[in-house]
Design a protein that fits this description.
about 475 residues, Rossmann fold, 10-stranded mixed sheet, 16 helices, alpha/beta, single chain, globular, binds the ligand O=P(O)(O)OC[C@H]1O[C@H](O[C@H]2O[C@H](CO)[C@@H](O)[C@H](O)[C@H]2O)[C@H](O)[C@@H](O)[C@@H]1O, binds uridine-5'-diphosphate, 16 strands, 6-stranded parallel sheet
């Protein structure tokens, strides 16, 4: 079997800790098999983009590229995170499209292809990740790369009518056909993409995941829900109980139940709605008032993008408003923490939380939901309150599933979670644990790569060049 080459915008270098499910998942996937991880260095430079840096950690080699401030602004802050991110999360109202940022996105993809092409060996299996790099395979094919190349979309695929509202949508999404396999988080995401291919892409859906473009090129699609490393997280959670930040949090609760939320500060995560739903819980269930403390961990994310800065201000106001209306001298209902925690400390926080609030308005998967389940004490598991619009809802049927737009419904789910007897908590948790153990991060990686390797040669013809 050839070498695995993983390509993503976000790379977690050795000893680096960074919030974000993609980087955490890819590190776990590469740890098992080794290979090359290629992507952005995380650094913006004054000079032109393109300088490469290399690091080696065990079986993983990292090759990362610097970007100039201009390229970073156009490609990452601009087209990736002000155009594609809102579009793919069904937020047309926030889409900001300019030809300038689109040109920057294409320019950076071409540069990734230039640098990557010279690294590749003929039998490498190339696996590209996420919306930052949709055109990458097409650019690689133009440079004569004939390797099997797979693509995985970590975020949702929205309705085809929304995709079709994007200027140049056909050029952009047709580029996906240069991949041999395009993976989505859920079957529903795949279906929506196939609708797009049929209705707006000028192609056809042949069946069994196979699609054909207007000019007869065939490629495959599939659903591969991303998982986590369950035993590692369960083990981290047990050990974290002795760590100072976890002990201090536990002591600070004074016997009250903890409800926890852990999310990048992103408008897709439904944080203002969650804060309001918690306030609604205090109003609708006064008998539980004062018995649950809500801790929201929300590390800042993409702070150069105006919508993210606005959200930060909104949450500061909202948490202050809820606390001023409901706090008593010995209890503050909302603790809002704007910083990043190491992954293993988080697992301890999950373990002492009776309730997890995972209520995004849209989310590709949401690994926090799965991590919360893996970190629970089997003798006394907590309850997951989960938005039905997270990809994880397709698998975690034991969660209390909610509609995050229905604040009363979320408020009542919090109350139900708080009052839930142990036998029901255990039964729900066990079913979710069985699922995340059966299809974990390693199963996800193997399933995707096996499918990519098994894609018939006719589906990945050298003819797809150009
Ligand atoms: O790299 P950033 O801009 O700092 O953002 C962090 C990552 O956010 C998104 O994560 C997604 O991937 C997760 C794992 O599959 C999934 O659970 C979650 O639902 C997605 O939102 C983004 O897609 C990544 O590219 C970013 O690295
Ligand atoms: O302070 C933090 C906050 C989050 N995370 C991790 O960041 C990831 C978030 O992934 P998720 O899929 O939930 O959402 P994303 O941020 O990728 O959209 C999870 O593994 C979290 O444990 C972390 O390590 N430290």
């Amino acid at each position: 079997m050839g070498r695995l080459v993983v390509v993503s915008n976000r790379v977690t270098l050795p000893d680096e800790s960074r919030a974000g499910g993609l980087a955490i998942a890819l590190r776990a996937a590469l740890a098992e098999r080794g290979g090359l991880w290629f992507g952005w260095s995380g650094t913006c430079v004054r000079q032109a983009s393109g300088a490469m840096h290399e690091y080696v950690d065990g079986d993983i080699r990292y090759a990362v590229m610097d970007l100039s401030r201009q390229d970073f602004d156009d490609y990452y802050n601009g087209f990736a995170n002000r155009t594609l991110w809102p579009l793919l999360h069904f937020r047309m109202d926030l889409v900001d499209y300019t030809r300038k940022t689109y040109a920057g996105y294409l320019r950076v993809n071409a540069l990734f292809a230039d640098r990557l092409a010279s690294e590749l060996r003929p039998d490498d299996l190339v696996w590209v990740h996420d919306y930052h790099l949709i055109p990458l395979a097409q650019r690689l094919r133009e440079r004569g790369v004939g390797n099997r190349i797979g693509f995985f979309l970590h975020v949702p695929m929205p309705s085809s009518d929304l995709l079709a509202a994007l200027p140049h949508h056909r050029e952009l999404f047709a580029a996906l056909s240069s991949y041999d396999l395009v993976g989505f988080q859920t079957p529903r995401d795949l279906e929506r993409f196939q609708d797009y291919v049929r209705l707006f892409g000028g192609g056809r859906v042949i069946g069994d995941g196979l699609m054909e473009t207007a000019d007869g090129r065939r490629f495959r699609g599939g659903a591969f829900p991303i998982g986590i490393d369950v035993p590692t997280i369960a083990d981290q959670a047990v050990k974290a109980m002795n760590r100072l930040p976890v002990r201090r949090l536990q002591e600070s609760l004074g016997g009250r139940a903890l409800a926890i939320g852990v999310d990048r500060l992103d408008y897709s995560k439904g944080l203002p709605e969650r804060f309001r739903a918690f306030e609604r819980h205090l109003e609708r269930h006064p008998n539980q008032g004062g018995r649950i403390t809500f801790l929201q961990i929300a590390p800042p994310s993409r702070s150069d993008v105006p919508e993210y800065r606005k959200l930060r201000r909104e949450l500061e106001t909202l948490s202050g408003h809820i606390n001023s209306g409901h706090a008593v001298p010995d209890w503050t209902p909302v603790r809002y923490v704007n910083r990043d925690f190491p992954h293993d400390v988080l697992t301890g926080f999950y373990r002492i939380a009776r309730i997890a609030l995972v209520t995004p308005m849209r989310d590709g998967m949401n690994l926090v939901a799965k991590e919360y389940v893996a970190a629970q004490d089997p003798e006394n598991p907590g309850v997951l309150v989960l938005s039905r619009f997270a990809g994880a809802a397709q698998e975690l049927h034991g969660a209390l599933q909610v509609n995050p737009y229905d604040l009363d419904g979320v408020a009542d789910a919090i109350a139900r979670a708080h009052a839930m007897p142990l036998a029901e908590r255990y039964a729900r948790w066990r079913g979710m644990m069985d699922r995340i153990e059966a299809y974990d991060i390693h199963a996800w990686r193997r399933d995707f790569l096996r499918t990519l390797q098994a894609t018939p040669a006719t589906v990945s013809p050298a003819a797809s060049a150009g």
